[in-house]
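Submission sheet (multi-component)
Chains listed below:
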Amino acid sequence: MTVLARSSSVALGRLPRPGTVLAGGFVALVVLAAVAPGLLTSDTPTQIDLTNALAPPSWEHPFGTDEAGRDLLTRVIHGTGLSLGIGLGATGVSMALAIVLGAAAALAGGVVDTLITRLLEVTFAFPSLLAALLIVAVFGPSVTTSIVAVGVGSMPGYARMVRGQVLAVKESGYIEAAHALGHRPWRVFRQHLLPNAMRPLVAVVTLGVGQSIVWASSLAFLGLGVPPPSPEWGALLDAGRGYITTSWWLAIMPGLVIVLFAVAVTSLGRTLQQRLEGAAR
Amino acid sequence: MTRPRPFRRAGVAGLGLALAGSVLAACAGGPSAGSGTRIEGGTLTYAHVQEPPCIFGGWIQQAYISRQVLDNLVTLDTDGSIKPWLATSWEVSPDGLTYTFTLKEGVKFTDGTPLDAEAVAFNFDQWMTTQLNGTAKVSLDPYYRAAEVIDPTHVAIRLNAPYPQFLTLITQGYFGIQSPTALRTRSQAENCEKPIGSGAFVVEEWRKGQEVVFKKNPNYTSWPATAKHEGPAYIDELRWKFVPDPLSRYASLTTGQSDVVYEIPTVHWKDAQEKFETTIRYITPGKPISFYINTAAGVFTDKLVRQAFAHGADRKGAVEAGFHGVIPYEGNPAMSRSTPDYNADLADAYPFDQAKANALLDQAGWTGPRTPEGIRTKDGRPLTVRIIYGAGSFITAEGATVLQALQEQWKQVGFGVELIPLTRAELNSGRFSDPTTYDAWPSYWTSPSPAILWIVWRPTTPEKPNGNNRSFYNNPELARIIDEANTSTDPERASQLYRQAQQIISDNAAGIGLYTQNTLVAAANRVKDFWLEHSQGEPVFSDVYLVQ
Amino acid sequence: MTAGTTGIAAPAPATEIPAPLVRVEGLRIRFGAREVVRGVSFTVEPGRCLAIVGESGSGKSVTARTLVGLTGHGAEVTAERIEFAGHDLQRLGERAWRSIRGREIGYVLQDALVSLDQLRRVGDEVAEPLRVHKRGTRAERAAAAVELLAAVGVPEPQVRARQRPYELSGGLRQRALIASAIALDPPLLIADEPTTALDVSVQAQVLDLLAEAKERGRALIMISHDLSVVARMADHVAVMRQGEIVEQGPAEQVLHRPQHPYTRALLDAVPSEHTRGQRLVRPAAGQPVVRRERAPIDRSRPVLDARGLTKVYTGPDEVVRTVVDDVSFQLYPGETLGIVGESGSGKTTTARMALALLEPTAGEVLLHGEPWTALTRAQRRSRRRRIGVVYQDPLSSFDPRWSVGRLLVDALSTGPRPPASAEEARARTVRLLDQVGLSPERFDAAPLRLSGGERQRVAIARALAPEPEVIVCDEPVSALDVSIQAQVLDLLTDLQDELGVSYLFISHDLGVIHHMSDRILVMKDGRVVEQGDADEVFERPQHPYTQQLLTALPRLAAA
Amino acid sequence: MSTAAPAPAARLRRIAGKLLSAVLVLLVAASITFFVQLLLPGDRATVILNIRNGRDQQWPAEEIAAINHQFGFDRPLIVQYLDYLAGLLRGDLGTSYTEFRPVTAVIGAQLLPTVVLTVGALVVAWLIAVTVTLLTVRRGRILGGIGAAFEAFTASLPHYWVGMLLLVAFAVQIPIFPVIGGDTPAGTVLPVLTLAVPLSGFLGQVLREEFHKVLDQPFITTARTRGMSDAAVRLRHALRHAVLPGITLSGWALGALVSGSVIAESIYGRPGIGQVLVTAVNNRDVPTVAGIVLVVAAVYIVANVLVDLAYTLVDPRLRIS
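Outcome: structure written.
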């Protein structure tokens, strides 16, 4: 048995090691682009050169130029901060909401629990895109709106997860042990319950960031995203899609960046998840 | 999801020139027309952009589609002259206050009821008294008084004042005549979905979100004088599909899934011209896409600043590059080149001249220390300009690119320009009717007649506010000139006054020109005799025939 | 052909010794660098039982798996010879292996709850070998399944066959598992810990079942860590340790005249009535048994006084279950009270009520004559330190993020003399570690990295830290190997002699209970069926259930 | 271990409770939409006038008043709300502001295509996920890695991007499928794929994870000791256990699919709830939007009931409790 387990953990066929390394590298690059775009490119993202519009990828313009002759790579790099910000922000928003609701439900139990679970059911049944539509309709498209819209949209899933986590930890032996030692409930919550319940969520959050970015870009596609000339990735993709048959790079390049980033983050998240699970068992 | 399309306004045909130009463009590429063996009947698929809530109504989308089922009293020819349609002839009383129309004999609505004077009168009352078609109403307000049945084939329209533009205006699709019986007896929903007219087609089925299926009206007798043939439509069926995505729309034409496509993206225009015999570029008359400049609040209350703004950026260059040379620049902020009585002197008003712009701003006192972003200031107040625009509706993606290009150049002379795209919901919500909410607003209003000046520039007065004057530019003199032009029975005088009005608007930079609104249409090579009606470019399918 | 008939058909005379069915010589298994089996040799003859005994990690299971070609991923198997019925198994391809598995060699794993597919019907599971080896039609196989279930003594087999494993009791489940292993009546049967996790009474029945197969002339290889179980079955015993067979020979000889010190240590380590009052771990070979001498127990004032404890649950389906029914007992200073009973008898629930972690439905517990369970949570908190607990699975009772040191310091802080400074805390923790026989460097270790025995020691240290009068031990050694179990039990007794702490000691293992307890409480279905002095209960059981338990209990002496 | 069957009374009560809560969920969802929409900037009468006349202007008070009266906007909010609720109970979702038709009619025509799209996507996603997992999980590092990488990649694909690429590839460049297929079978293929591909990634990841756990279970070894082939073990034993979490996920995925269908529908000019929804929101057509939310929520609830059923079918252990 032990033997099988061990050998299998070797053969675990998720992203192979080199993949994880690559992913890490890519994410690192993206983060760099976010904090210090200047290090990766010298041009400014809004530098218009209409005479040089829609130039295909070349050494000078690795990602080509857009309909206003702006260097696409530069725009992608300068858009990173915004996109990453939205990803993190949205995940933050949803996580914050989720933790409050989920934890409250799990700990309070009884009426509170049923109420919150019902509420979550409603939000689940409520197409997240509609939530986004309404939010944007109320506040108009902007970075903040995108963050809120995406955050609210992905909240219920996390909330359920948090609730489940907290419940699980609540039942665990070490919580009882802590009570048996005569610790105060608040201390038990602070020292054992919260940290242990949140632990596995670390991985989930990393996964969430990737998905949030994808989501935010979907909003952009529906014209509900960050307004131009902002080089937010989704906005770039949206701007480029009209040209896909004539100037493919405008839609393909930003799309690839988004997807690759999501993939990278996801694979990292999964590796992290396994680590944590390993640590827990 | 439907990308909102502009709501086109009433419009009279552009100068012959405009169409001539486009027809040339059309004939430039492809083999000569008329090739291939003709086939009887058949189905034609037309890919349109936006789906209206109702077949008829006050929205250009509705004018387009209702044209297929409804006939008008008169129509407009390419030379701008009025031609018979349901009305075989008409007389204008010497005082210009009464228009008496003689109706074609024996025309019947598709519900079998007669299309007589009573019907026409009933329709006029509908337009002026109900909310169903507000555009028809504003076009005739405040000149319309009453419609009067003389005998079954004669109807008189009485006006409060002479209004020579009247005939031109009623050539638009908004003025299609419907069966009174249907309007009276059927539910609003029924009329909305399947209006009863006397047109070449009848609505067979409306598959919402997908297409409207038209069947030919075999008993069609009331074709307009401008028709390319007499008698019922050649094709049996017209499938009017709604394809919001530009990429799909054009692809549907290139892959042969549709025969005629509306709104070819400018990127594909060249390609279309090479591939297809019939490509029509129709320059919509009326107010071009020009900036309303908020003269009531903000930095633009100062005329010098407005003029500096106009000089500050290379609008012409940006437009030509941004639209790949397909859509022409329009310097005249008040009227597009295809509108009658267009003032051509304004075609290049306020050329690109940053030195002049800077001089004007200095003169206006914007000489304070610049902000870190290089924005001019005055008494510590930065020279920021909020430009709102209907993203994807009034301003296409390409238009947005042009704005972004200009934004860069304006920055060079010290304008801090903020671009605020608005969703259709926000525009409709009427939230931006307040002067404090924006400084400039690029937008257009297609209209077949210089009377558009009255709609857009009539000053707001306490008793009669003008919700359409988005520059909040209240110039009594301008108002007087336009009104005089509208009511002048002397065409020469009217024309000269209209030109003068445009001059005033431009000189005061109450508006700043940008580009003309265009309709770009292409038809597959198997489609013959497809044309755009002239008052506002409604597609006409009643003459179309298909070839092998 | 179905097992039912042939099973009875071919009885093999157990007298003369036939030629070996399985012959293994110099078997070596390595996973990468780790060699887990080092040159193992043995033979099994038809109608005889070879028992491979050893503690976890001794390589016994891997050895067994190798006989069906399922050693595991990346295993490297070499041997001078692995023969089955004269065929060389080493040269078999996957296809050939499949034809052997189930047909020639039946395999029984431990714990049918996880060894049977919970989502499939018992009948399908039992008949699967028939389907795999294309025996009979669907209908015939279904019939065969029922017959097999009947053959292994499953009541109302038709019904059971249509149920799913989780709907069966542990015993029936294990029988079903065996039934599927003997479905094709294979000449060789391998049973890997067939009775672990079963209650003694069930254990006996399952062993009888295997014995019967043996009687029918089937060869049997039994893997077990439990010498007493082995004693009952094996003709031949091989003792494995770290991948080697340290001693093998006739059962009678190995179990009663062990040659190898390890075997001897193992045998001594088994707690039972004989080991009462002595340490289980011998200091060194040949030295005399150390007896524990302890102060007489003063039975005037109980530390813990449970009166008519009752716990009733109402399930979501509104079915009312009385888990503990009117249980009363007294625990006196320095005494060990053993609670014994099979799974579901209410032992643990009783313990949790004693700890006041569970509100009794009726009755109460007094601590030092003062109300305990009757108090409010807040009132209890200050007194909690006086009653500690040691769980079966210590790991789950440790916060996974905390080091051993932090766990203990935390526990100390709840005691009567909370450490004033970090230095003091550390010093006292190290002393605690020393007390439970752990070295100081364990201070910074993560519990996850410790061995089972070490973890349990840490758990005990934590229980001791607040200087309690009572420690509730809930199956504290059930998860441990015999030798480790011996060490832990010794530790507990030593601590009791040293600190005079009282134990409420819960176990399903009669041997352990007898070894540890002064007085015993026998529980069945939530009720106390018998209680009294340990020897009294064990030698002269009054209640039939107790008697049944004791007869079912496999004993080394019995062999 | 064996558990007694629950008392029928209790079961009935539980079912009743579920139904009640479902209805509650619906009402709350509809109410939220109703009120949120009133939060939207601007005034409904103006919007209606603007939409009808294709304008964006200010309207004279008298015209506004007329509309307000016609639609009853001049009544107190609470009255409007109660009126709406009363309608709901009568199964009347109200009348669209812009289409002059009952909302039920507006939605009715569009519901089926969307259901076909989402359900189709779910099914296809499962097919892809199961095949990929079965073929790659535990087949050595290379194959397993490829499988996992494939899942990670597809799971990260934005719907609209997939849609766009599929459209360009298989409708424009290589015209196999129609560009504007509407809801014809041929026209349904690409939209379904658009939604299915990313979802298959998600399902696949869960499936793979579970498969790994299951393949280490003793009962798998038992099956092998019976002489079962690896393929058989995977299909007969492992798969059934592995799909369980995926099934739960499918329930949740439906919400995402509805959102995704908006995108798919807009790219392929396909009729459906999504299109109507976006237009209605843009037009601030309160009854229509609320109606759609109601319907979607209802569908979602029903779907999840089905998912629960499927779950208990696969894992009878859940029937008890």
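Remark: Residues 72-108 of chain A form the longest helix (37 residues).
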